Amino acid sequence: MRMEGEVMDALLVVDLQADFMPGGALGVPDGDRVIGPLNRCLDSFARRGLPVFASRDWHPAGHCSFRERGGPWPAHCVAGTPGAAFVPGLRLPPGTPVVSKAADPEREAYSAFDGTGLEALLRRARVGRLFLGGLATEYCVLYTGRDALRLGFQPAVLEGAVAAISAPDGERALAELAAQGAVLLDSEEVAGWKEALRS
Ligand code: ZN
């Protein structure tokens, strides 16, 4: 039962999109390895009626972050294309609120909070602790975690459910978030961690 004033645990799935899978336009090594752990966490949250949110990179063609425009990345996650679709097999519950980022052609946005309305969605759902999994650890997960901390949410990063473009950068990102106050949790433990999360 949820009482008034109670804060909720919520899960945010960051950018589990086809172009970020190995072999995709901007493939993250081992990006596919996070699908299973995330699905187990999604199932666990769904079983307990806890809210789930998803973010997606949602660029217009010719986005300023693309190499053709002098940006750092190959073209990826162009809105409406198969590469921008969520990974097949990702078990997002029906009706999961989705926020789209970096849809402005002239502006990059790594954080799921950046210009998306996510903060308002989380506040409306009375979210306190925000579990984070997805891609890529040292970019969109890191920037999302920083914003979560800045905005007063309690980020809990699901180790085993995140993957980095560069492994050392990913380690540094997790260390930074932990040093700033984020909690690092084993995704498998969270998926089976019924009693602790039900409290
Ligand atoms: Zn992007």
Write the layout of secondary structure elements.
Layout: E1 8-14, H1 35-47, E2 52-57, E3 98-101, H2 118-124, E4 127-135, H3 137-150, E5 154-163, H4 167-180, E6 183-186, H5 187-191, H6 194-198
Parallel strand pairs: 1-2, 1-4, 2-3, 4-5, 5-6
Give a brief outline of the structure.
This protein is 29% helix and 20% strand.
Describe the model.
The longest helix is centred in the C-terminal third of the chain and has 14 residues. The N and C termini lie close together (10 Å). The mean pLDDT is 94. α3 runs parallel beside α4. The protein is α/β, with parallel strands linked by helices and 199 residues long. The radius of gyration is 16 Å and the shape is globular. The protein contains six helices and six strands. α3 links the parallel β4 and β5. A six-stranded parallel sheet has the order 3-2-1-4-5-6, sandwiched between helices. The chain has one domain: Isochorismatase-like (Rossmann fold), CATH 3.40.50. It binds zinc ion. The site of zinc ion has 6 residues, from loops.
